[in-house]
Design goal:
- The complex is a heterodimer of chains A (1146) and B (488).
- With 1146 residues, chain A is mainly β.
- In chain A, strand 5 (113-118) and strand 6 form a beta hairpin.
- Chain A starts with a strand and ends with a strand.
- With 488 residues, chain B is mainly alpha-helical.
- Chain B has helices at 3-26, 45-48, 52-67, 82-89, 101-107, 123-143, 149-174, 185-189, 196-213, 235-248, 253-264, 301-306, 323-326, 334-339, 375-387, 391-404, 415-429, 436-443, 447-457, 473-478, and strands spanning 43-44, 93-95, 285-289, 319-321, 340-345, 348-353, 369-373.
- In chain B, a hairpin with a 2-residue loop joins strand 5 (340-345) and strand 6.
- The radius of gyration of chain B is 28 Å and the shape is globular.
- The relative contact order of chain B is 0.12.
- Classes of the chains: A mainly beta (1146), B mainly alpha (488).
- At the A-B interface, helix 2, strand 32, strand 33, strand 34 and strand 35 of A face helix 1, strand 1, helix 2, helix 3 and helix 5 of B.
- Strand 38 of chain A pairs antiparallel with strand 1 of chain B.
Chain lengths: 1146, 488
């Protein structure tokens, strides 16, 4: 394209942003857009009052600057091709009162440019040189054409590798088949191969004309990593922020059904907790500590391919999958269990970027106060069409069972309890003192025993996962189509299973001019999760070991009827009849288009859509009920339909330019987001049979409830980034956000950040002195981010209808929805972070240290209120400031590397601290008894356990006044303060490859304390409950038997009495139950073997790999519950999963 | 295009992005874009008290939730209702399975302060949201100018009555309680406990207002048209509670007599045969809660809870009638025949309250839960008259109740013996109804004497402080000025 370089006025009315007169030429580039418009409008430049002589002196200036000066002095316009001008290097000229022609000659001396003058216009064009004869070549030397092919160690062609002839400007790059051609080069030329993913390689042509070059794939070094920051990407090397990326390679080698679980143990300052071991179970994520008192509204912002994604499921009819967070009503609607990330196929993910500091998150302004997690799906790559299949199958089991009493110990406990109480066991359900009803001791077969953990949760979950992927394309168009199927069953009896089918596609196109780009991605998943409504784990650890057989002789469920006809227990398999089904469909679509208006200036627009739809039912048939209660039991079932639809439009523009060593990148954009949620719940009851209970239309009685809400959000953002020679980097980010969740006065808020980095290893005074230091960077950032994680409409005073099967007097009632707060404001978190990145011995060792200090104030949350106000909380801005600060360390090392064997490790470690910094008015607030300024917000107050009174066998506690009592007061005696947050945590990964084998091992560790409900003291040991439970953890054998015994468990009792049940309740609220929950867990193991080249070639495969993978393989802990991660002894722990698989690429 | 225009464009070109950025940020963005309407399933408060039907719905919402025992809003008859819980705390009900920890704490009078152990029947946290609603309604109705005056008065009367009703139960269960009279959370959050005597003054004041405001007819959901159902508070409901309050406050027997007389003299209310008392639209009913369930829940929670199946108590029907009640009936008392029943399992006989005859059966609604009925004003007036030494008057009222139960006239003929006889009569007339027995024991200061014998038979130890339930610890945690009842 030819452009008119328009005149620069004599006196520039302003100077460039980036430095004096030199900026003028840069301004010209900015002007190019305008120039196009101006061209059509006619050339209006004035040329009055100019002379023909030129005077100009400049040293190493841009040639356009000289032209501009000549133009100013002579009035002659310049006309040239941009590409030609760029061939010119900086010029040094001294023109003293010369003619125009002479001035031009001097300027163009030694430049590959020539000029001609026509009228008042100077035309600049490329100097005509002979084709294919670079002017530096010696014509006498023999020349030849060569061709070649570049492959990687697996023999796969590598495209996009730049092949340069050393010492010349001549270069080419490999095509999609890895091939390249060079003409007329010296027989003795040296070729240099460089590429982003391969190690640089140098070879002498040595007279050959056909080369096959094998390049080594680069061991991913931190410094080469490209990080995605949502609206822009940047190189880790020059990044000013605290961002951590987890790539597909690490995700793929973990047999997880939720991509968030692949982050466990890998990222500093990121705690990912799985709520339970069910498919689709809740996953809680916390970045850099707990930012609110209640732990509510602390979810990070999730963005999948540019589309904001919910952190919690919309609504579920049953909570068995556990929660993904604490806040009950972030969407303003009932929130469900499970994790919405179960509906994203981990195999479709290219990378997950965790943005932590203000520099990284301020671009998201609001909602990123708790960090942001960006998920990018796989994109097609240019090259020959690649087809890959990946099949894995395996099993999941509970890794650790709770040690409970065996038959003998159980009987001993029960008999001792009877003896203690002076009672005699009786088979009569109506027995009165001195008899006491005890079917287990009098009716059941005390010689047989059942390991209920084995029966109910000891099964094997089967995993099957099949992924196919086709990708390829040309340099202009690339595509990727993937599909996946995943099935996993449970460890429960009864054939429950979760099945997912998914599709993912991506298409990229760029016009031949490289100006218009299009990127379209979509993912769809259909999930059918069959669950039940009760976690059998609790029963498994508490059912009496001598409880009856599950089945009668005729194969039906055994209810062990008593003399009065009532059931002797609740048969645990009856819970399987209480089905819970969750069918969820998830669609994510994203279209990004961009147009390069001018070199450096690109306008961009992103359109995103996400639709999560869930259809569920729970059924409660008669057969799940004890037979004697069926007559009075009303069958019922609930059905729900939930929809969450979001669309987002983000127009923007990006402008990049360089000025000598300064690279400037500016970005502006806007966000328009609309999210609507609808929930419809239908209840049916009075069914005539268990058979039609899944059909609402068969229900004689039906009732319905609906919820709906809408959320809108609008933002404007901008960013300016300056990079001087990759040495000094400064970034400024600003954003103005508006959210529909606030009242009219506080809709908008501004956020911003400033960040800088200094790559000191580029300073000669460092690089010359410290030779082992290959990279060194200091970073700092400060800024604000916000949050609107509250329910919708909280500023409105709303009434909702009451819910009744039969309306009272035929009318629907209304009830207040909550305390409205028209004064809601944006939450603000101030983040200050410092970082140090060091690379040693050519980046063989990469160390990153971060210090963070985040202060969260004006927090939005449900402020706890006494119920006398009508509600237990009001959504308001919390007056306290909470500070999270800590150190993050990450060390990536390449320990050993040879032709056959290589070993690399990565280690991360986080040392967090949390503190309630200030809380004006805490004394009069609802929080006065719970928190103390200066202490963490993760504290719990409890009784101080003082053992068992040797005389009476009752638990005793140390009261606040120092006395020992069995009846401490909850008002005054909660004297022990314990912190629930971890002291430190981290992960340690090793990758060892030997020949075709590769072994990856990830260890996760945490130093922490936590509660162990019923795990130590049991739940009223000695008692038997009518559902058949009464077994206790093994620890209760340390009980008090006779006066004088010094023990930790109080005397057994079988009949409730307040003298013993009161202390038992207090003991569960004491520090005895708060134990060390530290652990080291072998989180992931992956061993793979790549078939030899020969075999692959024979079978025409690009890739043939078999592997074994395992998750949660081994846990070392002193914790006595089922799992130190979920800290529970009554819910299904995360499973130990082992799979084998095969991966084939064609 | 002239040079000037060009310069401006140039200027913009140079500063294009920064200027765009700054100007965007300094404007108020797209305010319109982020405006949302109220959700379709909600009504904005601005519209609630402007329309007769919608304003009435707020009060209807309270009755719906009070009746909706199965969804947790219940107060009367279900698993968490006063008839069961206060009955267990007193000597009326026996818990079958002592290992049923949640009930055991109430049964054995061994509640603890921590909220985890009183969750089963948390009247404190159950009641105050209702009080918030009535306070909001009183404010909204008072300020409303667009409602029909008769509707406005009726609804205001209902709201004031309900406020008195809820505070009555709060003071009797917990003693001193925070007295919230507005919907302003800032005021209410800072309240400490108001002495019960002062709360009673407010109750009386509200009830007097309610008497003036409420219709003397029972009305429909529109608070305007007459209804045959007695499910919406009327002037008589307020009067019945006022009579009770005067009796409870022990200083105004003349007023108690006056208020009770107003009801007894109204021919609209009649003592009916024992088996008809608890029917829907019973002539004895002063206030009933309409059943709102279907299937097995289509009648009352009491019936569903108390009526034992052939197999005896179980986890769904966990209690039976205590021998203290069963053995209190005089020979020939038809109430024992008609209002109790039993099942025999093996050698054991379980008695159960049978006032409500329909249990968990899928049938049409025939019985409604009675909150106030005519027998109580008779007993109130008998007691008030006895206290005022009107022996014959007291005898006449007592005998009205005894006659219906086919018992001979009372032999008590002086104040002390009459008061004893009236307490005995209340025990066998009002058993397992809304905690009457528990409250009677407390207001007559006989609770320690009675429970010191009874509690040990319930595997507990009686302490005098057990007569008040503890305030949930979580509430104390949230409000420093709230102090726990003694003994917790």
């Amino acid at each position: 394209m030819f452009l008119m370089a328009l005149c620069t006025p004599k006196r520039a009315p302003f100077t460039s942003l980036f430095g004096g007169r030199q900026g003028v030429s840069q301004t010209l580039r900015v002007m190019k857009l305008i120039a196009i418009i101006m061209l059509s409008a006619g050339l209006a430049a004035s040329a009055r009052g100019h002379t023909q002589s030129v005077t100009y002196t400049g040293k190493a200036v841009n040639i356009e600057t000289v032209f501009a000066a000549i133009k100013t002095q002579t009035g002659y316009s310049f006309f040239y091709n941009l590409a030609d001008i760029q061939l010119a290097g900086p010029v040094t000229v001294h023109i003293q009162n010369e003619s125009l022609e002479k001035a031009l000659q001097l300027t163009l001396e030694n430049q590959p440019l020539s000029y001609s003058i026509e009228g008042k216009t100077v035309f600049i064009s490329k100097k005509i040189v002979k084709q294919n004869e670079p002017f530096t070549m010696d014509h006498q030397k023999p020349l030849r054409d060569i061709k070649g092919k570049v492959v990687n160690e697996n023999g796969e062609p590598v495209s996009g590798v730049t092949v340069t002839i050393k010492g010349t400007n001549q270069a080419t790059s490999t095509n999609s088949n890895g091939e390249f051609n060079l003409s007329n080069i010296d027989n003795n030329a040296t070729l240099v191969f460089t590429g982003t993913n391969v190690e640089t390689f140098v070879i002498n042509v040595a007279g050959r004309s056909d080369l096959e070059i094998k390049l080594k794939t680069k061991v991913t070094s931190l410094n080469e990593v490209i990080v995605n920051k949502g609206y822009y990407t940047e190189q880790q090397k020059t990044s000013t922020s605290n961002v951590f990326s987890v790539k597909a390679k690490d995700i793929e080698q973990q047999p997880v059904n939720n991509p968030l679980l692949a982050l466990q143990g890998r990222v500093p300052s990121l705690i990912v907790t799985q709520a339970s071991g069910f498919a689709g179970s809740g996953v809680r994520v916390q970045v850099q500590g707990q930012t609110s008192i209640s732990g509510m509204g602390t979810d990070p912002l999730y963005v999948v391919d540019g589309v904001p994604y919910p952190s919690r499921s919309l609504y579920t009819l049953n909570g068995i999958q556990g929660s993904s967070g604490l806040s009950p009503d972030v969407a303003g609607l009932p929130v469900g269990g499970g994790s919405p990330f179960s509906f994203i196929n981990p195999a479709d993910i290219e990378s997950i970027d965790i943005l932590k500091d203000a520099d990284a998150t301020a671009i998201y302004g609001s909602r990123a106060a708790n960090g942001a997690i960006l998920i990018t799906t796989k994109k097609g790559k240019a090259g020959k069409t690649k087809v890959s299949f990946n099949l894995q199958t395996g099993t999941g089991k509970i890794g650790h069972f709770l040690d409970v009493l065996n038959r003998k110990q159980y009987l001993e406990m029960r008999n001792e309890a009877f003896k203690n109480d002076g009672r005699i066991p009786s088979s009569n359900p109506a027995a009165t003192a001195p008899f006491s009803f005890a079917p287990d001791l009098t009716i059941w077969d005390t010689s047989h025993s059942t390991d209920w953990q084995k029966v109910l949760i000891g099964g094997t979950a089967h995993y099957t996962d099949f992924q196919t992927n086709v990708s390829g394309g040309t340099t202009n168009t690339q595509f990727l189509v993937g599909s996946g199927y995943h099935k996993e069953t449970t460890v429960f009896p009864g054939g429950l299973a979760d099945q997912k089918a998914s599709l993912h596609f991506n298409i990229n196109n760029v016009t031949p001019s490289q100006k218009f780009r299009l990127q379209f991605s979509g993912s769809y998943m259909a999930d059918n999760n069959q669950l039940i409504q009760t976690d059998l784990t609790s029963l498994a650890v508490s059912l009496s070991p001598i409880a009856p057989a599950i089945y009668d002789a005729d194969g039906s469920l055994n209810w062990a009827p008593l003399t009065n006809g009532n059931s002797g227990w609740i048969n645990p398999l009856a819970y399987l009849y209480n089905e819970y089904r969750n069918n969820t469909n998830n669609l994510i679509g994203n279209l990004v288009t961009s147009y390069q208006v001018l070199k450096g200036l690109e306008i961009k627009s992103s359109f995103g859509y996400n639709s999560l739809q869930s259809e569920q039912f729970v059924i409660n048939p008669s057969k799940a009920i004890r037979p004697e209660r069926r007559a009075a039991f009303d069958r019922w079932s609930d059905f729900s339909n939930s929809y969450s639809n979001s669309w987002i439009i983000e127009p923007g523009a990006e402008y990049k330019f360089s000025l000598n060593s300064l690279k400037v990148n500016t970005l502006v954009g806007a966000t328009f987001l609309n999210n609507s949620n609808n929930i419809k719940i239908q209840n049916g009851s009075g069914y005539s049979s268990d058979l039609n209970i899944k059909d609402i239309s068969s229900a004689p009685f039906q009732a319905a409830q609906i919820y709906s809400s809408q959320y809108k959000y609008n933002a404007l953002f901008g960013r300016v980034s300056g990079n001087w020679d990759d040495k000094y980097i400064i970034n400024l980010t600003a954003r103005r956000d508006g959210s529909s969740r606030f009242g009219a006065d506080n809709l908008f808020h501004n956020f911003g950040s400033i960040a800088g980095a200094w790559v000191f290893s580029k300073e000669s005074f460092i690089s010359n002195k410290i030779s082992f230091l290959s990279f060194g960077k200091l970073r700092a950032s400060y800024g604000t981010t916000g949050s609107d994680q509250i329910g919708d409409y909280r500023f409105l005073n709303l009434y909702n209808p009451t819910f009744a099967d039969v309306d009272y007097q035929g009318a629907t009632g209304l009830v207040s929805n909550g305390l409205p707060n028209p004064h809601l404001q944006w939450e603000e978190t101030k983040k200050l972070q410092f970082g140090l990145d060091l690379g040693f011995l050519t980046d063989r060792f990469l160390l990153t240290v971060n210090y963070y200090q985040n202060r969260c104030s004006n927090q939005l949350l449900g402020y706890q209120l006494p119920i006398a106000t009508g509600f237990s909380s009001i959504t308001r801005n919390f007056p306290a400031t909470i500070q999270n600060f800590g150190w993050e360390f990450s060390l990536i090392t390449s320990n050993f590397k040879s032709e056959r064997l290589s070993w690399s490790s990565s280690f991360n470690f986080t040392l967090p601290k949390n503190k309630l910094l200030s809380f004006p008015g805490i004394e009069t607030s609802s929080y006065s008894t719970l928190y103390t300024v200066g202490q963490p917000v993760t504290i719990s107050k409890m009784f101080h356990f003082a053992g068992v009174d040797p005389a009476t066998g009752r638990y005793v506690f140390r009261a606040a006044n120092g006395s020992i009592t069995s009846t401490p007061s909850f008002a005054t005696d909660l004297t022990v303060v314990k912190d629930r947050s971890p002291r430190f945590y981290g992960g340690f990964q090793n990758t060892i490859s030997y020949k075709s084998f590769q072994l990856d091992l990830l260890f996760q560790f945490a130093k922490q304390s936590g509660g162990i409900p019923y795990g130590l003291l049991g739940d009223r040991p000695g008692q038997f409950l009518t559902d058949g439970t009464g077994n206790q953890p093994i620890n209760v054998v340390n009980r008090w038997i006779k006066p004088g015994d010094m023990t930790s468990v109080q005397r057994f009792y079988t009949v409730s009495n307040s003298n013993l049940s009161g202390p038992a309740n207090s003991a569960n609220a004491s520090d005895i139950n708060f134990t060390d929950a530290s652990y080291i867990r072998m989180k992931n193991v992956s061993l793979s073997w790549q078939a030899p080249e020969k075999w692959k070639r024979k079978l025409s495969m690009q890739d043939a790999k078999i592997y074994v993978q395992g998750q949660n393989i081994l846990t070392i802990t002193k914790y006595r519950g089922l799992d130190p991660e979920t800290m529970s002894s009554r819910s299904l722990p995360p499973l130990r999963v082992i799979t084998v698989g095969v991966q084939i690429g064609l | 295009m002239n040079t000037r225009t060009f310069n401006i464009i140039r200027l913009n070109g140079k500063w294009l992005l920064p200027i765009l950025l700054i100007s965007l940020i300094s404007t108020n963005g797209c305010k319109k874009f982020i405006t949302v309407d109220a959700p379709i399933n909600s009504t904005n408060v601005g519209n609630v008290f402007t329309d007769n039907a919608i304003a009435a719905s707020v009060l209807t919402g309270i009755y719906t939730n009070l009746s909706n025992g199965n969804s947790g809003g219940g107060f009367g008859g279900d698993f968490t209702g006063l008839s069961l819980i206060a009955g267990m705390s007193a000597d009326e009900i026996t818990l079958n399975d002592l290992n049923n920890q949640a009930y055991f704490l109430y049964y054995s009078n061994s509640l603890l302060g921590n909220s985890g152990n009183i969750g089963i029947a948390n009247y404190w946290t159950l009641t105050y949201p209702y009080i918030f609603t009535v306070n909001s309604a009183i404010e909204g109705l008072t300020n409303s100018v667009s409602l029909t005056p008769t509707v406005k008065n009726q609804l205001l009367g209902e709201a004031k009555f309900m406020r008195a009703f809820f505070y009555f139960y709060l003071v009797n269960l917990y003693g001193d309680v925070p007295l919230c009279l507005s919907s302003d959370w800032k005021i209410n959050a800072a309240l400490s406990r108001t002495p019960a005597s002062q709360v009673y003054l407010q109750i009386i004041s509200d009830l007097k207002d309610a008497q003036k405001l409420l219709s003397s007819d029972y009305l429909d959901a529109d608070a305007l048209t007459k209804s045959t159902a007695r499910v919406r508070p009327s002037k008589w409901v307020a009067t019945a509670l006022l009579a009770r309050v005067y009796l409870y406050t022990n200083n105004d027997f003349a007023n108690a007599e006056t208020e009770a007389t107003k009801i007894i003299d109204n021919p609209f209310f009649q003592l009916v045969p024992l088996n008809s008392v608890f029917l829907k639209n019973s002539a004895e009913a002063i206030w009933q809660l309409q059943a709102t369930g279907t299937g097995p829940n289509s009648n009352t929670g009491e019936g569903k809870l108390f009526i034992l199946p052939a197999g005896g108590p179980n986890s769904g029907q966990p209690v039976y009638l205590s021998n203290y009640v069963v053995n209190s009936f005089e020979a020939g008392d038809q109430r024992k025949t008609n209002w109790t029943a039993s099942v025999t399992v093996g050698a054991t006989t379980y008695n159960y309250p049978n006032k409500y005859k329909i249990g968990a059966v899928n049938t049409t609604a025939q019985e409604y839960c009675i909150v106030f009925r005519l027998a109580e004003p008779y007993l109130i007036r008998a007691e008030a008259r006895a206290q005022q030494n009107n022996i014959s008057g007291a005898q006449a009222d007592l005998n009205a109740i005894r006659t219906r139960a086919a018992l001979p006239n009372t032999t008590a003929n002086d104040k002390p013996s009459l008061l004893t006889a009236i307490m005995q009569e209340r025990k066998v007339e009002l058993f397992t109804e809304w905690g009457h027995r528990w409250f009677d024991l407390k207001r007559t200061n006989t609770i320690d004497a009675v429970m010191e014998t009874v509690t040990p038979t319930k595997n507990g130890t009686w302490q005098t402080t057990d007569k008040l339930y503890p305030i949930p610890q979580s509430e104390l945690d949230k409000s420093k000025q709230l102090l726990q009842n003694e003994g917790y």
